[in-house]
Amino acid sequence: MLNTLVVYVENKPGVLTRVASLFRRRAFNIDSLTVGRTEKPEVSRMTITVEADYDQARRIEANLYKLVNVLLVENITRESAIVRDLAMIKVAATHEARSHVLELAGVFRARVVDVAPESLTIEITGGEDKIDGLLEVLRPYGVLEMVRTGIVAMRRGSKSAGAVTTTVVASTEAGGENVAYSV
Amino acid sequence: MTDDNKTLTGAGILWECLEREGVETVFGYPGGAILPAYDALKHSKIHHILVRHEQGATHMADGFARAGGGVGVAVATSGPGATNMVTGIATAMLDSSPIVCITGQVGSKLIGSDAFQETDITGVTLPITKHNYLVTHAREVAQTIREAFYVARSGRPGPVLVDITKDAQQTTCAFDWGAVAPQLPGYRPDLSPAPKEYEQALELIHNSKRPVILAGHGIVISGAMREVRDFAEKAGVPVALTLLGIGAFPASHPLNLGMMGMHGEAWVNHAIQDADLLIALGMRFDDRVTGNLKNYAPNAKKIHVEIDPAEINKNVKVDVALVGDLKEVLDALLPHIESLDRSEWLDQIDKLKGDSAVRDIQNLPDTGHLYAAHVINDIWHETRDADTIVVTDVGQHQMWEAQYYKHEKPRSLITSGGLGTMGFSLPAAIGAKVARPDAEVWVVVGDGGFQMTMAELATIVQENLKVNIAIINNGYLGMVRQWQEFFYERNYQATPLLNPDFAKLAEAYGIKAATVHQRSEVLPTVEAARKHDGPMLINFQVEQEDTVYPMVAAGSALHEMIRRPSPIVETAADE
Question: Which of B116, B177, B233, B461 is deepest in the core (most CB within 10 A)?
Answer without folding.
Answer: B177
